[in-house]
């Protein structure tokens, strides 16, 4: 507990300004990654910066994945590479609506 609890005395919540997903959202709906950010912040609360980086790494990685979707993009890239490889080998033929050609209209 800090000696002076200025945030409470002044009636402001600085922590809310520092967090991305906790900011005021349109229509009052929580941000998509709000839960992941909250887990990360709660994990690191009360720990020092060095210890929090080491101990809260899984929570931080989950939050960053939710924000940037890097693992999802890598997975999708591998799936598309495998599909192209199978098409080249003749083991897979995509359906007509997946070939990327425009429909011919009567």
TrEMBL record:
Disulfide partners: 33-66, 43-56
Annotated GO biological process: mitochondrial respiratory chain complex I assembly
Alphabetically ordered keywords of this record: Disulfide bond, Electron transport, Membrane, Mitochondrion, Mitochondrion inner membrane, Respiratory chain, Transport
Main location as per UniProt: mitochondrion
UniProt xrefs under InterPro entries: NADH_UbQ_OxRdtase_FeS-su5
Membrane topology: Peripheral membrane protein
Stored Pfam families: Ndufs5
Annotated segments matching region Disordered: 85-106
GO CC term, one of those recorded: mitochondrial intermembrane space
Location(s) in or outside the cell: Mitochondrion inner membrane; Mitochondrion intermembrane space
Subunit structure: Mammalian complex I is composed of 45 different subunits. This is a component of the iron-sulfur (IP) fragment of the enzyme.
Family named by the database record: Belongs to the complex I NDUFS5 subunit family.
Function recorded in the entry: Accessory subunit of the mitochondrial membrane respiratory chain NADH dehydrogenase (Complex I), that is believed not to be involved in catalysis. Complex I functions in the transfer of electrons from NADH to the respiratory chain. The immediate electron acceptor for the enzyme is believed to be ubiquinone.
Name of the protein described by the UniProt record: NADH dehydrogenase [ubiquinone] iron-sulfur protein 5
Protein species of origin: Bambusicola thoracicus
């Amino acid at each position: 507990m800090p000696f002076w609890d200025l945030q409470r005395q002044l009636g402001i919540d600085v922590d809310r300004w520092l967090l991305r997903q906790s900011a005021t959202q349109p229509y009052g709906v929580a941000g998509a990654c709000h839960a992941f950010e909250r887990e990360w912040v709660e994990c690191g609360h009360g720990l020092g910066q060095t210890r929090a980086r080491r101990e809260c790494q899984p929570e931080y990685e989950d939050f960053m994945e939710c924000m940037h979707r890097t693992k999802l993009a890598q997975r999708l890239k591998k799936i598309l590479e495998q599909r192209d490889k199978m098409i080249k080998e003749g083991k897979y033929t995509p359906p007509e609506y997946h070939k990327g050609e425009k429909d011919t209209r009567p």
